[in-house]
Amino acid sequence: MPGILPTVAPSAVAHDSSDPLKMRMRLMLLGGGNALGQALIRLGAEEDIGFLAPRPPETGWDASSLTLLLDETRPDAVINLAYYFDWFQAETVDEARLAGQERAVERLAELCQHHDILLLQPSSYRVFDGARATAYSEKDEPMPLGRRGQALWRMEQWVRATCPRHVLLRFGWLIDDSLEGSLGRFLERTRLDQEFFLADDRRGNPTPVDDAARVILSVLKQLDCQAPLWGTYHYGGLEATTTLALGQVIVAEARALSGQNLRDPSAQAHAVRADASEEPQHAVLACKKILHTFGIKPRAWRAALPTLLDRYYRRG
C-alpha cells in the first residue's frame, strides 16, 4: 500500500511532551503538497511544529483510503486540505468529482468521531448567496448559489452532525502562488493583447495563503491547550475590496516585480459576468468571532502580495 503510507514532513520531529511550548498533538495534514498545505508546513517549521503529511493515492483521497489511513495512524488532529485546489482555486469542478469528495469528507468525519480525533475542515464564503451588502457572520443562514457552495454547505452540515470536536474555517477569496490557480490564470490574461474584464461591484476579502496558514496554525495551537473551542469561524484578509480593485493592485505589483508590460483589467457589472449565477456578489466575511475566541486579528492582504508574486514568478 505505498500510495497511502504516511510520510513525515521535514519539519516533523519528536518533541518533549513535557515542554509547555511544544505542540503535544500529533497533527496529520491531508493536502501537504498543495499551496495552502505547503504554506502551513513552512510556517510550522519556523515554530518547530511538524505534520504527518501522508502521500495520497494516485486517484486522490477517498473514503476507503482515508479509513485505512486513520485506522493505522490514529493522529490527534486532522487538517483536511485534501481538496483545497478544487474548492478554492479551480475555475470549475464537475458534479461527480464534488460528490466523491463529499463522500470522503463524510467518512473522514465518521472516522474522526470514532477515533476521537479533532477535525479542522476548511470551507468558504461560497456557502452564502451574496444577496446582502453587509458582511456575513457565522450566525447568518447559508444559501449557496452554485454546486461548489452547495457541496461545501452539505459537508459542513455533515461534519457538525457527526464529529462534535471540529473547527470549520470559512475563508474569503484565497490567493496562492500556484501557476494553475486563480492568480495564475489572472496573470496569464494580463499578458495577452486583448481586453478582459473584472466585476467592479463584486466584493470580498482577499486572503493570501500564508495568512490562511497563520490562522490555521493559531487555531491548532490553542486547541492543543485543551481549549474546547469547537464550531464555525470566518476569516478573510483585512480591507474588503472589489475584484476589479484587487486585479488592479495585483497588476501594479506584478509590473514592478517582473518588469513586464501587463494589461489592466476593465470594469464590468457582476450581473453580466458568466459566473454570476455561481459566484456571490457580496462575499465579505465578518471576522469578529475568530478575534474574540482565538485572538486572531485580520492582516492586510496588500502587504503579502509582493512575497506571493515573487514565489509565483519563481515557479514560472
Automatic annotation (TrEMBL):
Transmembrane segments: none annotated. Residues 25-313 form the RmlD-like substrate binding domain. It is an enzyme of class 1 (oxidoreductase). The keyword Iron does not apply. The keyword Oxidoreductase applies. Pathway: Carbohydrate biosynthesis; dTDP-L-rhamnose biosynthesis. Binds 1 Mg(2+) ion per monomer. Keywords: NADP, Oxidoreductase. GO terms for biological process: dTDP-rhamnose biosynthetic process; O antigen biosynthetic process. It catalyses: dTDP-beta-L-rhamnose + NADP(+) = dTDP-4-dehydro-beta-L-rhamnose + NADPH + H(+). Its cofactor is Mg(2+). One of its GO terms (molecular function) is dTDP-4-dehydrorhamnose reductase activity. PANTHER family: DTDP-4-DEHYDRORHAMNOSE REDUCTASE, METHIONINE ADENOSYLTRANSFERASE 2 SUBUNIT BETA. Catalyzes the reduction of dTDP-6-deoxy-L-lyxo-4-hexulose to yield dTDP-L-rhamnose. Belongs to the dTDP-4-dehydrorhamnose reductase family. This is dTDP-4-dehydrorhamnose reductase. The lineage of its organism: Bacteria, Pseudomonadati, Pseudomonadota, Gammaproteobacteria, Pseudomonadales.
